[in-house]
Amino acid sequence: MIRQFISRQFLFFLLTGGTAAAVNFGSRIMYSQWLNFSTSVLLAFITGMITAFVLAKLFVFKASQQSIRRSAAFFILVNLVAVLQTWIISMGLAYYLLPSLEVKLFVPEIAHAVGVVVPVFTSYIGHKRWSFR
């Protein structure tokens, strides 16, 4: 199980995923100018997901023989799990854990950053096995 995370493919997944995460994180800040935190997190996730699909197809799983339609369908399913992870963690940290620890500065940023990082491993496995096999 650990071996799949020690590979060139996983390194490229981390790089492209990091780029998509930066898009996700930055767009959440932008969306928050007009929308509440919860909605902004969800919209930012979609923005990052589109970025991640394009980059993964071009640079990580380029040998995939699946059609774009099938890859996109599985990509969305894998990311539904990831968005749920991201949202639950972000909300839990922002509204419960960080306030209970008396954290007052950058609460939405910290909560969202942790929420974005957590699904990296589950997403890699899902995309490798289903989205881009």
UniProtKB/TrEMBL annotation:
It is a multi-pass membrane protein. Residues 13-132 form the GtrA/DPMS transmembrane domain. The keyword Oxidoreductase does not apply. The chain crosses the membrane at residues 38-60, 72-98, 110-127. Keywords: Membrane, Transmembrane, Transmembrane helix. One of its GO terms (cellular component) is plasma membrane. One of its GO terms (biological process) is polysaccharide biosynthetic process. Its main location: membrane. It is found in: Membrane. PANTHER family: PROPHAGE BACTOPRENOL-LINKED GLUCOSE TRANSLOCASE HOMOLOG. Belongs to the GtrA family. This is GtrA/DPMS transmembrane domain-containing protein. The lineage of its organism: Bacteria, Pseudomonadati, Pseudomonadota, Gammaproteobacteria, Methylococcales.
